[in-house]
Amino acid sequence: MSDNLIDVLLGALNDLKAKEATQVDVRGKSDVMDVLLIASGTSNRHVKSLASNAVEDAKKAGFQPLGVEGLESGEWVLVDFGDIVLHVMKPETREFYDLEKLWSVEPAGRSAD
Question: By its UniProt entry, which Pfam families does this protein fall under (predicted)?
Fold first, then answer.
């Protein structure tokens, strides 16, 4: 996991006034990623701008996203960097899916250490 990439992404989100940017450590809960970064934008245009700015700043810092989904609509944009996945959403979408709560639940058969 790259703390540098997390810093770049959080900086890019803060530059454009993202709302409630947070990171969720999902190591031990997911085999495909280590960290979720989640932030809200105030409108579809803001969500698109936040995600685009994060991708642009990451590329400038030498990090290439594996994929970007949802940029067309701007309701929810997912940017996959492998170990780090960025979700930028409108507040109502974020509230509905509540990824922070979803990923805070311990998987069946595993206990919190």
Answer: RsfS
> Tokens 């450590």 belong to which residue?
25
Q: Among the listed ranges 19-28, 63-72, 94-103, which one has the minimum average pLDDT value?
A: 94-103
For 18-26, the CB contacts below 8 A with 24+ separation are 18/50, 18/88, 19/91, 20/94, 22/100, 24/99, 24/100, 24/103, 24/104, 26/103
User: Model pTM greater than 0.70?
Assistant: yes
Q: Write down the domain spans for the chain.
A: 3-102
Number of alpha helices (DSSP H) and beta strands (DSSP E) in the chain = 4, 5
Burial call 13-26: b when 16+ CB within 10 Å, e when fewer: beeeebbebebbeb
Between CA 55 and CA 31 the distance in angstroms is 23
